[in-house]
Automatic annotation (TrEMBL):
<feature type="signal peptide">
    <location>
        <begin position="1"/>
        <end position="17"/>
    </location>
</feature>
<keyword id="KW-0732">Signal</keyword>
<protein>
    <recommendedName>
        <fullName>Peptidylprolyl isomerase</fullName>
    </recommendedName>
</protein>
């Protein structure tokens, strides 16, 4: 089954997948060679999501999920984390003998209460004209027709801040609860529909990237890990899913597909550091 919406061209989706990087990056505007040609109608396949999680059947939330899945599936990345539990901040990784560090800033569980425009990003030459060979991205107004991708500011009323330090404006030690904000990339040529989709998700599980942020939009505005793919949804039965991962969802969430299970895992003692060796030429990862 396919749905027909106005999206970026297939070539652009593949190029934008370069945003999804291994281990995070401090760059706000990633390098990607993109096709600035006019958008066209693109049939985006309905992503098949494994596991107990049931994604929205239709509507803007479903459109958002399918489009993010299309971008994520085209991405080339090296991921050393094997599942959701390894993104909990008490889990530390040592990469190629480096100092131990977590794979995320933390995981936030809560309800999306607002989605606001952040910034658009365009590939422009020195004269401000579209240039597919331009490196990085130039910030432009959110509604600028030259924008190849956009970032929105999502505000979440946090129920569980599974972090060891403040993240997105939320202090895990605040017993009265808090709100947090994060930046989320949208790639559709119909950004209004994606904004509606985010608002419709409601309860979410957000894995924050360990390094990437959007300081030009707001101070300490963190990004979502894996280029936005690790924005998890909680379905009507309380089951957690990361629909952009498609068939990898079930193995990724593992035994922690409920909030109660994830919170319980976060409360366990600090696990041993996982030591990882990465061969960038071959993409080979060795653990242990």
């Amino acid at each position: 089954m396919t749905i027909t919406k106005t999206f970026l061209s297939a070539a652009t989706i593949t190029a934008l997948a370069g945003i999804v990087t291994a281990c995070g990056t401090a760059s706000e505007t990633p390098r990607a060679t993109q096709d600035p040609a006019s958008t066209r109608t693109l049939d985006v396949p309905r992503v098949a999501v494994s596991g107990r999680y049931k994604p929205p059947a239709d509507g803007p939330a479903r459109d958002l999920i399918d489009h993010q899945a299309a971008v994520s599936s085209s991405a080339s990345s090296i991921n050393f984390e094997t599942g959701l539990a390894e993104f909990l901040p008490r889990q530390q990784f040592s990469i190629d003998g480096g100092p131990p560090a977590p794979a995320s800033r933390g995981i936030l569980v809560g309800e999306i209460v607002s989605v606001a425009p952040g910034s658009g990003y365009a590939l422009l030459d020195a004269d401000g004209k579209p240039d597919p060979d331009a490196e990085g991205g130039t910030p432009v107004p959110f509604d600028d027709s030259r924008a190849m991708w956009r970032v929105v500011v999502v505000t979440v009323k946090v129920d569980h801040a599974l972090t060891t330090a403040p993240a997105g404006g939320c202090d895990p030690n605040d017993s009265d609860g808090c709100t947090a904000q994060f930046g989320y990339p949208i790639y559709s040529a119909d950004p209004g529909n994606d904004v509606k989709g985010l608002r419709a998700l409601g309860d979410v599980v957000v894995v924050l990237d360990p390094k990437r942020s959007y300081p030009k939009i707001a101070k300490d505005l963190p990004a979502v890990a894996r280029g936005g793919a690790l924005l998890g949804d909680i379905d009507a039965r309380g089951v957690i899913g990361f629909p952009a991962l498609g068939e990898e969802n079930e193995s990724f969430v593992g035994a922690h597909d409920t909030v109660a299970s994830l919170v319980k895992q976060a409360e366990k003692a600090t696990p041993p550091v996982i030591r990882v060796t990465v061969d960038l030429e071959t993409g080979t990862i060795k653990r242990g």
